[in-house]
Structure formats: structure tokens, C-alpha cells
Amino acid sequence: MTTVEKNNFDLVDGKEIYSFVLKNGSGMSVSVCNYGGLVLSVMAPDKNGCFGEVTLGYDTIEGYINGEGYFGAAIGRIGNRIAGGEFTLNGRSYSLFKNDGPNHLHGGKHGFNCRIWDSEMVDGSVKLSYFSPDGEEGYPGNLSVSIVYTLTESNALSIEYSAISDADTILSLTNHSYFNLAGGGADSSANVLSQELRIAASHFTPVDSTLIPTGELRPVDGTPFDFHSFRPIGERINADDEQIKYGSGYDHNFVFDSGCEFALCCEARCAENGRLMRVYTDQPGVQLYTGNVITCAEGAGRGGRTYQINDGFCLETQHYPDSINHPEFPSVVLKADEKYFSRTVYEFSVM
After folding, report:
1. Separation between Cα atoms, residue 147 and residue 151, nearest integer Å
2. Closest to 185 in 3D by CA, of 345, 64, 56, 326
3. How far apart are CA 112 and CA 227, in angstroms?
4. Which residues are catalytic?
5. What is the gyration radius of the CA atoms in the chain, in angstroms?
6. First to last CA, the chain
7. In terms of Cα–Cα distance, which of 234, 212, 206, 203 is closest to 312?
8. Is the model's pTM score more than 0.85?
9. Backbone phi, then psi, for 65, in 5-degree steps?
10. Structural domains of the chain ordered from first start
11. pLDDT digits (tens, 9 = 90+) for 2-28
């Protein structure tokens, strides 16, 4: 049976910040936080039955506030990029903060990743709730959002997103955890390039030089984006390929063959310790990001570690980037009083 322990973590703007430790009967644990909806830690088993950290993160709340890269954060209202920070909805134009060159990224200057969420423990899970007022970061509609984190007895972290708005708006929520199955703590210095990945996607969305999709759904066959079978992450990360060069590695959306049906969509594994992670989702795509521009102050990472480029990879389940400006993509429009729900599961086992 999963237990939940609530701990005082820190104060931010005079408000209590808590960490919640979920632990199941097999010994696996997950820690989450009501600042930024953070997944602080995931302690997963290896082939020897030892539990170790498999995410990147910080030891203090200051690390998350001052650090870059969205480590472990809840992302919204829109995950990924919106071209030019502009979109039109119901004939009205909206302007958003441009925090990624010419584009809007991950909800803007003060997205969900840096908000303080209400928190409660519910039936062995942790529920975080946030009210985003109309006009926040330029988005329309008063939006009520909740995220429920559950750790199952089968070593699966389930993240369920729910929301409702009083006016038409746009929404695509995700989590930005960086995984390293060789270890994300101070006792490991391995990057993820030798870890293997499989993605159930026959197409990806190629991008321009600012990482905005062109609108094309390009087949992965014969490209560095073919992960139909397990391939090392680093095998083609420096390929002489325009798309790889645009992202300085992988920073691209993959189009799931399963569409929006809840299904197994990604698998990652580490031969050295036997760890295997499976990702299930009802989202139509996933952003594979290989930590191409990780920046970390000396000793600022967990346990005094200084994170480097490619020390972690992200599998951000999502709608396609810039979907609101591409009518041919699955819609991110949430109608007034319509209920939003999405679920992603990260399941850990051994090979």
C-alpha cells in the first residue's frame, strides 16, 4: 500500500512549500512539491534490487527558482513553443511573452512551473490545484487546473491532469522531468548517450531554425529520428542532418502511431543496471529533448553535482508544438465549461 508523507520544504513569498514523499510496498518512492508542481525525485529499482535516483534536480527550492531547464516542473498553459508568441482564437488575436528568442515557450515568463499550488493528500495520492486567472501570461479564460500524482504498487508514477475554463482557451499540459536511468544523484556522473530508447512513432514534426514546426509530418524511416526499435540516444545525436543541427541534438516532437488512444508509446533502458522505463499516455505526441543546453552552476545540482549537456533526457507527452497556429494538427482549444483530462504514466521495472 502506498503511503504519503508531507514535509515542510521551504518558504516562498511567505507561503509554505511542501514536499510529499509517496512510497509503495516494494520500496520505490517519488517526491513531488507544490511549488511548480515539481517531481523532485524518483527512486527506481535496478536489476540488483537497489533503488536509485533516476531524475535530475536540486536539493533546495532556490535551485528550482534560480535554475534553468524546468527540471521536474509542471508545464502550462501550453507546453512547448508558440510561434512569435501570437495566436488567434475565435477571431481575436492574443500576444504572449516571448521567452525563447522570437517565440513563447512553456507558458511564458511565469508559467505553471513557478506558481505555488494548493495541495492535499487524497487516498494515497497527492493532488495539486491552481487557479489561473483570465489574462495570466496573455491567455484567455479563468482556468482551474489540478494534477494528481499516484505511485502504484507496480512501480508506476501516474500523472493525471484535469482542468476547466469559463471561456474558450488553449491548453496542453505536460511534465518536464529529466531522466537518467544510470543515476541522477551525486553518486553518478554518467550521461544518457549510451541509454537506449524506443518510440512508437512513424513520423515527427520537422522544425525551422527557431524550433517551430513547419507543418509537415515527416516519416522517420531512414533518418536519425527512427526509434522504432531500441537505439542508443547518442548513436546519431551528432548526425549531419539539418534537423539535428537545428536542435543541437534531439528537441523534436514525435507523432504517436496510437493517436490519442492511451497506449505504451516510449521505452527507455539502461543495459548497465537493467533499469527499464515505459511511458504510457493519451497525448498524440512526445517531445524528446536530450538536454542539449543544460546549464548548471558549479555544484548546484543534487548532492553537489554539476549537470552537463546530455546528462538527462525528457519525454514530454504533449500536443504538437505550435498546434494553435496549425489547423492540421490536433487541436489544443479547450471550450468554455468543457472538461480537460489527460494521463501519462511512467512505469519502472528491470530487463
Report:
1. 13
2. 56
3. 31
4. 176, 316
5. 19
6. 24
7. 234
8. yes
9. -70, -45
10. 3-350 (2.70.98.10)
11. 999 999 999 999 999 999 999 999 999
